[in-house]
């Protein structure tokens, strides 16, 4: 199994995080974890939650380097059509040394997203 997970965030969130040693998005305080996706899940996630948003990045994270606990869990919303899938959740701040790359995630003219080649062909 590939040891890479992905996290979508804005360029400004990433620039702010890089000033420190870890990344703490609002979901960490509100829900207790950082939402992530596998390569197979990331575009559905982007189209569901970020449709039409520009200036997004996808962090490539080596899960073997995480200092916080990682769990693969079903979405909290049982009405989510993806409820049978298990999503990676990081239960604590994301240590930046686990991030192996930040890839641009541009949206198409219709607001949808496609998997960037740099993610699809990359191996951690």
Instruction: Give the C-alpha Rg.
Output: 14 Å
Order of strands in the sheet with the most strands?
A: 1-4-8
CATH architectural name: Alpha-Beta Barrel
- Please write the string of helix (H) and strand (E) elements: EHEHEHEEEEEH
CATH homologous superfamily?
A: Protein of unknown function DUF952
**Could you list the spans in which at least 5 consecutive residues all have pLDDT below 50?**
none
Largest sheet: 3 strands, antiparallel
Question: What fraction of the residues are assigned to beta strands by DSSP?
Answer: 25-35%
List the total number of helices. Answer: 4
- Strand-pairing-aware structural class: alpha+beta
* Total discrete domains: 1
**What is the end-to-end distance?**
11 Å
The share of residues in helices is: 10-25%
Instruction: Find the count of extended strands (DSSP E, 2+ residues).
Output: 8
CATH class (first level) name: Alpha Beta
CATH topology: ADP-ribosylation fold
Overall spatial form? globular
Mean pLDDT reading: 90
């Amino acid at each position: 199994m590939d040891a890479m997970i992905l996290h979508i965030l804005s360029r400004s969130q990433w620039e702010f995080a890089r000033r420190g040693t870890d990344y703490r998005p609002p979901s960490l305080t509100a829900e207790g974890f950082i939402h992530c996706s596998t390569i197979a899940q990331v575009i559905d996630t982007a189209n569901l939650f970020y449709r039409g948003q520009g200036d997004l990045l996808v962090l490539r994270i080596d899960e073997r380097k995480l200092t916080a606990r990682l769990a693969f869990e079903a979405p909290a919303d049982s009405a989510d059509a993806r409820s049978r899938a298990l999503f990676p959740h990081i239960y604590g701040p994301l240590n930046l040394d686990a991030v192996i790359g930040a890839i641009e995630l541009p949206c198409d003219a219709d607001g949808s997203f496609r998997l960037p080649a740099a993610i699809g062909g990359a191996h951690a």
